[in-house]
């Protein structure tokens, strides 16, 4: 767990049991998703062209960072900062 999250053992020892369990379960989910993705990648050459395109679009969408709430402009960031500063 320390290796997966990059934590030191002292931090892990101080964590509450339920928090520790949540992080542990997160590792299990991530590893399962990684295994499923590996299986899909290995079957890619034999997939139908339509399925290959769908898989590629899905990977492209996951790799593209999108801010919550749509597009962000410099002026919208400035407006949010002003609102936070001015209360």
Residues in helices, as a percent range? over 70%
**What pattern of helices and strands is seen along the backbone?**
HHHHH
Q: Give the strand tally.
A: 0
Domain count, please report it.
1
Could you characterize what this model shows?
With 87 residues, this protein is mainly α. The chain has one domain (2-86). The protein is built from 5 helices and no strands. It has helices spanning 2-5, 9-14, 17-43, 49-63, 74-86. It is flat. The two termini are 41 Å apart. The mean pLDDT is 85.
Summarize the structure.
With 87 residues, this protein is mostly helical. It has one domain (2-86). Helices cover 75% and strands 0% of the residues.
Topology:
Layout: H1 2-5, H2 9-14, H3 17-43, H4 49-63, H5 74-86
Keyphrases for this structure?
single chain; about 90 residues; mainly alpha; 5 helices; flat
């Amino acid at each position: 767990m320390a290796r997966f999250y990059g934590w030191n053992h002292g931090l892990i020892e101080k964590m509450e049991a339920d928090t520790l369990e949540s992080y542990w379960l997160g590792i299990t989910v991530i590893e399962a998703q990684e295994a499923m993705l590996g299986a899909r990648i290995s079957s890619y050459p034999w997939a139908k062209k339509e399925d290959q395109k769908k898989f590629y679009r899905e990977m492209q969408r996951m790799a593209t960072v999108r801010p919550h709430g749509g597009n962000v402009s410099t002026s919208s960031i400035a407006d949010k900062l002003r609102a936070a500063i001015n209360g």
